[in-house]
Design goal:
Blueprint lengths: L5 E4 L3 H12 L4 E4 L11 E2 L8 E2 L6 H5 L15 E2 L3 E6 L5 E4 L3 H6 L5 H13 L5 H4 L9 H11 L3 H8 L3 H11 L11 H15 L3 E2 L4 H13 L3 E3 L15 E4 L3 H6 L7 H8 L6 E9 L13 E6 L3 H10 L11 E4 L14 E9 L8 H9 L9 E7 L1 H7 L36 E3 L13 H14 L3
Parallel strand pairs: 1-2, 1-10, 2-9, 6-12, 10-16
Antiparallel strand pairs: 3-4, 5-8, 6-7, 11-14, 11-15, 12-13, 13-14
Protein name: Pyridine nucleotide-disulfide oxidoreductase domain-containing protein 2
Pfam families: Amino_oxidase (PF01593)
Function: Probable oxidoreductase that may play a role as regulator of mitochondrial function.
Length: 474
């Protein structure tokens, strides 16, 4: 069998990012992928009707655009084109109003009445200083390069979303607006560090917008694979790795999978202590996802929502908080928090002329298979009357179907594991290097390692950096 310096198992965004880093260093690498196409959840497929292209997993990619590693790559030269919505995201309310996150933080703050100065106090400085802390935040715990900026961010990020919003904001709509971004965490909004997700995603909107690849998320993967191959990398599809001994010999093996899957692979020679600790890794809530083919765009009552790439549905702080809390009790809200993506408002290559797509999901308990279609569509209808009449076709996936589509989505968990305070920086276990395993030649490079979920490739980058330092740096 052909020998390589490093072998990557899994071609999600982190596996490819790791392989690119190692290939850039002059190493000989190969990626083994179990499915017939690379990308993990980052794919685009015709899920509904002919001519309609839908993102099967991730759909909006501010973290990919802002990724400290990915943005150094010449992906434009390999066909990647970014689409920037007029408004990154918006949050509608039942009275017909809405709050929008604009790229200009001051314009965003001007919508908030009595909370204008408070919003600027929270976001203006940390947005301007983002690039002084992004590499430290998007990686394992370490001594920060810019301690004062890091501490300034950290003092806000360590709080719960509820604590931060109650401390700074007076208005219910401002608080709900912040909850809409923070709830991406899939954490209860009174949980420590749940504010960090709202802060980071809001900063992304104000600094970079919330862009997505033209033609579909799969085009991000196509560009990455094209660049990887241009460096001499090898990609092997339709090869599910169940036994390390089925792979060629290499100095290092990097696994873009979750702990549960790594534990199932034979002949990894992991110690019993490490295996036991890894088996205690906690997975987070799942999602129920819908893709629609639409006769027209979603008829939101408020114009801001008709110009937004992403729309957060949650009509009060109590409704959003209740929705996210109930999933940890094993139940589901009848008025859940929902995320919606509207690609075809800005990218007409994804649907036939005059037609549209929409993408949405809500959070559910891990492994729950309740059909949330009617509940989700009824929630949207409240602020977009006539929406249901525009549906030409739909494709749905519950947690089991999502895991069948991508085995990394354990129980529907799209973040590679619960992202609470105990697993945010120390995932998968507390260890000097979270990427190393007890076998010195094997590493985890998936979103089950810092900085966790999000299409940014930084988990793969950091794991590859560690493997290179351990085995190849002279």
């Amino acid at each position: 069998m052909k020998n390589y310096d490093c072998i990557l198992v899994g071609s999600g965004i982190n596996g490819i990012a790791a392989a690119i880093y190692l290939q850039q260093k002059g190493l000989k690498t190969c990626i083994y992928e179990g499915s017939n196409a690379p990308g993990g959840s980052t794919k685009t497929q015709p899920l509904t009707l002919p001519g309609f292209q839908h993102d099967t997993g991730s759909a909006i990619h501010p973290m990919a655009f802002a990724s400290p590693f990915l943005k150094t790559l010449p992906l434009k030269d390999h066909g990647l084109e970014w689409i920037f919505p007029k408004i990154p995201y918006a949050h509608p309310f039942l009275d017909g109003s809405a709050v929008a996150a604009y790229t200009d933080v001051k314009i965003t703050a001007s919508e908030l009445g009595a909370d204008e100065e408070a919003y600027l106090n929270v976001f203006e400085k940390i947005t301007s200083k983002w690039e002084s802390v992004d590499s430290d935040l998007l990686g394992p715990l370490t001594i920060p390069e810019n301690p004062l900026d890091f501490i300034r961010f950290g003092l806000k990020a360590i709080q719960s979303a509820e604590q931060l919003s109650d401390h700074y904001f007076q208005n219910e709509k401002t608080k709900a607006f912040f909850f809409g971004a923070a709830a991406h965490s899939t954490l209860p909004l009174d949980a420590w560090a749940s504010s960090s997700f709202g802060l980071v995603l809001s900063i992304m909107a104000h600094k970079y917008n919330w862009p997505f690849p033209k033609g579909g998320a799969g085009n991000l993967i196509k560009a990455l694979v094209s660049y990887y191959k241009s460096l001499g990398g090898t990609l092997i599809l339709n090869h599910k790795v169940t036994d390390v001994e089925s792979l060629p010999k290499a100095d290092a093996y990097l696994f873009d999978c979750t702990p549960k899957q790594l534990l199932a692979i034979k002949n990894t020679n992991l110690s019993q202590t490490y295996r036991k600790r890894l088996s205690n890794f906690k997975y987070g809530p799942g999602v129920f996802k819908i893709d629609w083919a639409l006769d027209k765009s979603i008829p939101f009552t408020n114009e801001k929502c008709r110009m937004a790439g992403t729309v957060h549905i949650g009509y009060s702080t109590s409704a959003i908080k209740n929705s996210e809390a109930l999933i940890y009790e094993g139940t589901i809200s009848e008025t859940p928090y929902i995320l919606i993506a509207q690609h075809t408002l800005f990218d007409d290559s994804r649907a036939p002329e005059g037609k549209h797509t929409a993408w949405a999901y809500c959070h559910v308990p891990n492994g729950n298979i309740t059909d949330m279609t009617t509940i989700i569509e009824n929630q949207i209808e409240k602020v977009a009357p006539g929406f249901k009449q525009l549906i030409l076709a739909r494709s749905t996936k519950n947690t089991q179907e999502l895991e069948a589509f991508n085995p990394n989505i354990i129980g529907g968990d799209i973040n590679g594991g619960k992202q609470d305070i105990t697993q945010l920086f120390t995932r998968p276990i507390v260890k000097i290097s979270p990427y190393s395993t007890s076998n010195k030649s094997m590493y985890l490079c998936s979103s089950s390692t810092p900085p966790g979920g999000g299409v940014h490739g930084m988990c793969g980058y950091h794991a590859a950096h560690k493997a290179f330092k351990d085995h190849f740096k002279k």
